[in-house]
Amino acid sequence: MKKYYIYLFALVGVLGFFTSCDEDGDQLVLSDNVIAPTLTLPDLTLVRANGTDNVVFECTPVDPGFNASATYFLEACPAGNNFETVTQIYNGVTCNNIELTVNELNSILLNGFPEDVTTSVDFRIRCVLEADAGLGVDDFVYNSETVNGNITIFGLLRLDVLIDGKDTQKIQSPGSDGIYEGYVKFDAGDAFTLHDPDNAITYGAGTSGLAVDGSAITVADAGWYSFTANTNDLSYTMEAYNIGLVGDATPNGWNAPDSKMDYNLADRTWDITIDLTDGNFKFRLNDGWAWNLGGNGTADGSADNYDDDNMTVQLSQGGKNIPVSDGAGNYTIKLDINGSVATVVKN
Hints:
disordered N terminus, 2 helices, Immunoglobulin-like, about 5% helix
């Protein structure tokens, strides 16, 4: 009987500990003894020439009033987004002065924010605590106050594609190593040069590749091209790269030419707005079947090629025919090749 009362008092104590917590959104706060993490922003004007300089986010850790293991996340989102779309800058077991180089921070933020413009961004420290007591409860989450700052992110080193003196397109150097790549769209007969804006150098046609101040390069056929330029050895390659929709739901059915998509550099996706009829479609490259993407469903034209919200399609090479999701009409379709997923939205 004595042991029974010991267990009973222990249970009451545990319940009393956790009922002292208040829930505020995704943040559980022990009412009397929790000190939330804090965050102070550095100067967020990022300049390529200062790429090796350090940027320090000044932080203080959480003090929950009890022993716990902590993991900290430095997060950013567009101003007013309430962290529904998060770019994670850092995660680790400490948060005393998070330090990155300008290049490191810039590369991370390029995944979520536009380049070469000033953007209003919200930042916070999110702390996840796991109680050491082994009481079998969910982790506690504490957030710092949201801190807003204006940030200027510089783009990757680039070459501007000049057509008639206009630089509306570019190819970029992911490794900042003189090797540039990207997708470029040309009309038949376009003549172009490549301009390095950081070094004021223009490249054109040479004897067997590129040449500084060379003549304009003429394109024979209209369409998208996968373009690579190497300014170290003055070589370049350009290959037709036209992704399109094919199928009995599309204007030309299962015959070429396919309904061509356009590349969106901002989010690295291919998209199209198109009138579709009842039927099926797939994605393929250059009007051929060597490279084609279909749904991961079990059968051609089956609704299980879509996920539960009936808008997103998980894709695989040579996958199944994808049915038009919501009957005939006008659709906007976005294809993420790297993520092997497409969104299909009726307008």
